Amino acid sequence: MKKTGIKIIIACVALVLASGILFWRANASKQKAPEYVFYYADNQTADYPTTLGGKRFAELVYEKTDGRIKILMKSDGELGLESEVLKQMRYGGIAFARVSISQLAELIPDMNVLQLPYLYNNAEHMWSVLDGEIGEDFLGRTLDYDLVGLSWYDAGARNFYVSEKPVTSLEDFEGLRIRVQESDMMADMVEALGAIPMKITYSEVYSYLERGLVDGAENNWPSYETMRHYEVAKYYVVDEHTRVPEMQLCSAATWNLLDEKDQAIIRECARESAIYERQLWKEREETSRAAALARGVVETELSAKERARLREALSGVYVKYCEPYMKTVNEIAALGEK
């Protein structure tokens, strides 16, 4: 090839590259940096329904604010335990989080009402409560604690699981060492059943079960399967003692940075992501249960008679934690009768 031809080819390539660079720069200039960048904390794994719900929330906010607000999801407890996250949120250190009502109740005692044992007949009953006036009222109760309640996430029904043998009656709980969340009410619930409550962080449950330091724990199917607790506690007892909803929260310090338009977008996206999360939860619950049973888990279901006995044994827990709120408890029960 002649030198002239080579020079022409080189010139053409250079022109194409220069055009590409100019095109990239033009597009880059149109993409403005976010006005706000916030962190979102979740203590579950990256593929867990609540985490995926939080990611969907972040995506929706970014889309609906045209990239002005960017939210970075941090899962696997990267930003700390839920109790630590709540503290940081109150001082503006973390902007958003998904937190269990059990943990939130340690800060806001009113929330204990929503996690009373055997309060809901089923999932439909719980959502009729949370998606109605009662749920709105409780979202608003966070304001006095420098937090803003945004929406409700599903966490299914919690059940007991133990290492040695199935639990089929109230008497079978006697003397069992049961892991509970860092929640006084949950500890009192287990104690009222005759067992010994042990407050242990979520990440340490497997180790405690494996070493025989506890005899059992209680959680939903996805958590049980995701953390492989079936390897060290294969007897899963379906009693659905509590349905503990979870709340999406915003730090009041973050909330006050935003104008009313952006606040409205945040709320809208939070509620839209909640619908998405609930569907994911339903699917995950079914697949987790099937996966656990396929690995040799023994599932037993307490009879209606035994559940009634357990409910009666917990009457003192109702009085201790929710006597001032019995009007609300009765209203919740009434919704379950419709």
How is this fold's topology laid out?
Blueprint: H1 3-30, E1 36-41, H2 49-64, E2 69-74, H3 82-90, E3 96-100, H4 101-107, H5 123-130, H6 133-140, E4 147-153, E5 157-162, E6 177-180, H7 184-192, E7 196-199, H8 205-210, E8 216-219, H9 221-226, E9 235-243, E10 246-251, H10 252-255, H11 260-294, E11 298-301, H12 304-313, H13 315-322, H14 326-336
Parallel strand pairs: 1-2, 1-3, 6-7, 9-11
Antiparallel strand pairs: 3-10, 4-10, 5-8, 5-9
Helix pairs in contact: 2-11
What distance separates the N and C termini?
88 Å
Give the CA-based shape: globular
Mean pLDDT: 89
What fraction strand?
15-25%
Briefly note the structural class of the backbone. Answer: alpha/beta
Write up this protein.
The structure is a single chain. The protein has 338 residues and is α/β, with parallel strands linked by helices. Helices cover 49% and strands 18% of the residues. The chain contains 14 helices and 11 strands. The protein has helices spanning 3-30, 49-64, 82-90, 101-107, 123-130, 133-140, 184-192, 205-210, 221-226, 252-255, 260-294, 304-313, 315-322, 326-336, and strands spanning 36-41, 69-74, 96-100, 147-153, 157-162, 177-180, 196-199, 216-219, 235-243, 246-251, 298-301. The strands form 3 sheets. It has a 5-stranded mixed beta sheet, with helices on both faces. The chain has a 4-stranded mixed beta sheet with strand order 8-5-9-11. Strands 6-7 form a two-stranded parallel ribbon. Helix 2 links the parallel strand 1 and strand 2 (69-74).
